[in-house]
């Protein structure tokens, strides 16, 4: 066995190269590593085109368009394309066809991305001050709308939008723009902000009343007209401030929030604002021809429940205005007692059943006094309550007292406002 020193030289060989056993000189049996062009700075050799016939090169065009040729074949094809016009045209056509085979990737963010990321984070580490359940739908819907607005250009911000609602048993509407809709949400969300002790977005602007329509019209008149994309920043900051503030309220969701001619407890006001945010986000998405999904089933159920709880009061107001059928005498009862009821069955996402007392807002719905049954899809019912579907056209399964059914459907539409 040969021994080598640290320099890799055989210390048993003499200067003539003969081995120590008298054999011919063979040098070291472990050769030095081969030098590479990558080690000495020399340029790597390029792929030389191979000499191929025209027919062969033409047959390779499909593989070249798919980047499936070897390096020499690709070099030969590309050299040929500079000389042959017919093959160059065919290669261009094939390259364009390849792009059609690839699935286009949208650059738009998924509106649900923020929700999924937050859910994943919160599963690992719950927040020290979580958002109350009754405010979660507002947090989610404002985040979804903000994601929709993220990449809007000037053309989208000034796209025409028609706000629709139901008033005096007829359709009503108001024409504005995408920026005008955000200004509307900013103004009306301000009623919740004021109730929480935050700044009023109207500032020094004086509105004739706290009613949502009055606040919106006052803001529109006083602001730069028409509203521009600049309205997004204050709306976004206000929604974040509202969510942060309610996170510190604990169980104080019963605090009243004034809408001018009526009040809602804070927990219901947050549901109301989430509902309107979703409805107007759909208005905006329709204006810019962009798909927009309904809220999650849990949040949709909360919105439907709020509408169902508000129906008896709207029925009573319509009855006082002579717009609804007078209550049935034998079943008209005092507050807290069972009375004539309509069973409202909501199918699909966010579904459930609610017994709606017909004769008194203080009465209790009773299955024993059920006089009618109405079945509606959850999203369809919400669009009815938003004034986007006329009561006479609501796709509903109906059984029982026709006048009671008509009164409830018209009362549901009467929940809407600008």
């Amino acid at each position: 066995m040969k021994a080598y020193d640290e320099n890799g030289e055989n210390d048993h060989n003499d200067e003539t190269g003969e081995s120590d056993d008298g054999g011919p000189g063979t040098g070291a049996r472990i050769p030095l590593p081969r030098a590479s062009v990558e080690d000495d700075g020399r340029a790597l050799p390029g792929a030389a085109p191979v000499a191929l016939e025209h027919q062969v090169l033409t047959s390779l065009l499909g593989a070249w368009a798919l980047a499936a040729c070897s390096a020499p074949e690709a070099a030969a094809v590309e050299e040929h394309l500079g000389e042959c016009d017919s093959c160059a045209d065919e290669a261009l056509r094939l390259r364009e066809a390849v792009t059609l085979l690839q699935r286009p990737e949208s650059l738009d963010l998924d509106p649900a991305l923020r929700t999924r990321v937050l859910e994943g984070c919160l599963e690992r580490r719950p927040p020290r001050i979580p958002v109350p359940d009754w405010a979660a739908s507002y947090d989610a819907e404002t985040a979804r709308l903000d994601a929709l607005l993220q990449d809007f250009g000037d053309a989208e911000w000034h796209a025409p939008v028609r706000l629709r609602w139901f008033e005096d048993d007829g359709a009503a509407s108001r024409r504005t723009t995408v920026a005008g809709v955000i200004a509307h949400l900013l103004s009306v969300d301000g009623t919740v902000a004021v109730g929480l002790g935050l700044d009023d977005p109207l500032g020094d602007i004086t509105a004739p009343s706290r009613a949502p329509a009055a606040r919106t019209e006052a803001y529109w008149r006083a602001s730069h007209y028409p509203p521009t994309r600049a309205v997004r920043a204050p709306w976004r900051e206000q929604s974040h401030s509202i969510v942060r503030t309610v996170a510190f309220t604990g169980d104080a969701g019963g605090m009243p929030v004034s809408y001018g001619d009526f009040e809602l407890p804070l927990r219901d006001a947050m549901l109301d604002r989430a509902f309107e945010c979703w409805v107007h986000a759909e208005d905006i998405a329709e204006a810019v021809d962009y798909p927009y999904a309904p809220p999650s089933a849990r949040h949709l159920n909360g919105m439907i429940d709020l509408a169902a709880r508000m129906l008896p009061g709207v029925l009573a107001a319509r009855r006082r205005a002579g717009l609804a059928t007078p209550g049935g005498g034998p079943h008209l009862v005092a507050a807290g007692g069972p009375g004539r009821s309509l069973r409202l069955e909501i199918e699909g996402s966010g579904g459930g059943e609610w017994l709606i007392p017909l004769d008194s807002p203080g009465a209790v719905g009773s299955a024993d006094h059920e006089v009618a049954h109405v079945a509606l899809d959850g999203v369809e019912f919400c669009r009815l309550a938003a004034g986007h579907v006329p009561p006479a056209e609501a796709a509903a399964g109906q059984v029982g007292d026709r006048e009671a059914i008509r009164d409830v459907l018209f009362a549901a539409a009467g929940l809407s406002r600008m």
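The first strand starts at residue 160 and ends at 167. The chain has a mean pLDDT of 84.
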